[in-house]
Every structure is written in structure tokens, then in C-alpha cells.
Predict the structure.
Amino acid sequence: MTRKGIIGIDIGGTNIKAALVRGGRLSRRVRTTTHAHVGVQRSVNQIKSTITPLHSEANAIGIGIAGIIDSKKGVVKYSPNLKGWENVPLARILRREFGLPVYILNDVNAICLGEWKHGAGRGHNNLFLFTLGTGVGGAAICEGKLLFGAHGFAGEFGHTTIHAKGPLCICGQHGHIERYAGAKFIVARARKKMAKQKSSLAKYDLLTPKIIAREAARGDRVAREVFSEVGYYLGLGIANLLALFDPEIVIISGGIARAGRVLFAPIRRTVQQVVMGSKYRDFKIVPALLDDDAGIVGAALFAKLTRVNRPV
């Protein structure tokens, strides 16, 4: 008889991705476009339909979802990607439907768990992971435990301040990391430079960080300047992380992290220049390994670990 697995689900604003997870390995993948603006009940029904073909082979369900999550109560307090999602008792709803224990956590926390046990963070018990995409998220493993904090906000790297009088962030505060390294701000930085300098970027009608990174790797001056500056600001933020958490490894996840050397070289250079006691620290700054699977793997792992410690 095949050993039952755990259903891992990654609920994003664009896609819902799920799979059966056994020992970090995925099977029976399910992927569907997220109906983000149809209201709570229809969104919940969509999640149920994702689970339905998998639940007979599972003994638990783990879900990673963007937003403010009360993991202890299994409640989505707020999700920016799903219209109307405030104080939704998602774990209870799904538990009643499928008769399985259900555990939920913030999506970046799920990614962090996945990379910790099965990706770039294997073998390390003190690490910080942050995601680079439309926004900038973060999560920490401290002494072998996922850090939630008193109110579930631990690890909000994107909303740490590196310049008190810096540009306005979408959250309403000034000088946050996200305002320097979020995707649309990278593109805006490039366009501002293009107005003053010639650049191969001008041939693109729709600019993206991926395109800018590619042109930087090809030697375009504007593109290289953009990523040098983004890397500098991220390096300042990472230096703060090292001072606060003293991790063995910092993992960078998300689409922009795939830029490679044009991003990582200025990050590492800045960190070495500004972090306190750099010659006494043994740390690495590396890209994530699991790509889009990290959230699924981490959500399933969270269900496994929580079920052992707090059976439902």
C-alpha cells in the first residue's frame, strides 16, 4: 500500500498550485488560475476543487497564502490577493469538508520552510529568506524554529527602513526596502536613467526586471547601474539582518533573484563593506533552489510538523 502524503498548497494571486508531498517529493500536481476577485465563497470553492482529487491519498493539508495569517487558529485575517478575505476561518472550513487536519501559514514562511529542509538552507538552523518580486517578503528560521513573532509579523524584511527620508512605500511609510527592490520600482529606476542615457533597454516596449537583468549581463550601462543600486540597497538591508539574527545563510527567492551575478555581486560587496564583524562571521548569501515548488513543500512540511506537536 502506498504511504499517504500531505497535500501542500500555494495560494497566490495568479495561480493556486497543489501537490501530494512525501519526504519533499511532489506528485499528482494540480494547478489552476486563481479567481481572485470573485468573493470569499467562490474562492473557497475553488480551493476545495483543488483539494478534491488529492484528498483520498492524504492524511493532512498544509496551505501557504499571502497575507496576515493566524496560524494557531487557522484564520486568514487578511489577504491582499483575494478580494474580501478578512477573518476567514479557512482551516475549519476545509477540515469540515474533507475530514483532514488543516494548517495554514503565510506564503513566505512556507517558502522558507521548504528551502530550509529541502532546498538551499539544508543543514542550517539559523537562516533568513526573503522573496523578491512585486513586493519583498521575508521569513526566518532561528535555532531550528520558524519565527512567527508576537503578532505573526516576524520577518517583514520589505518593510524595514533603510532611509528615513527615502521615497514613499505603498504601505504609506518612507524608505522601505520594498520601495527600492520591488519589481515596479526597479523598472521605474531604469526608465528614469534611460531618459538621460542611451540604453539597449529602449528597444523594449514593456520593461521587466528580467529584461533589465539580461541586458545588464550583456553589458548595458543603464541596466548594470540599476542592478548595482538595487544590490547596494539590498546589501544594506541584509547587513541589518546579519546584525539582528546572525544567520548562517541568507537565501534570496523570487523571480528577480534569478538575475544572477548582476544582482548578487553588489549585494555581497555591500554586505562585506558595512556589516559589523564581517571577518568573524561565516555566512553565505545564495539564491533559492526550489523555485515554484518551495511554497508547496513548505506548506506540507508545516502541516507535518504542526500535526506532530499539536494534533487536530
Summary: Residues 5-105 form a domain with the Nucleotidyltransferase; domain 5 fold (CATH 3.30.420.40). The mean pLDDT is 91.
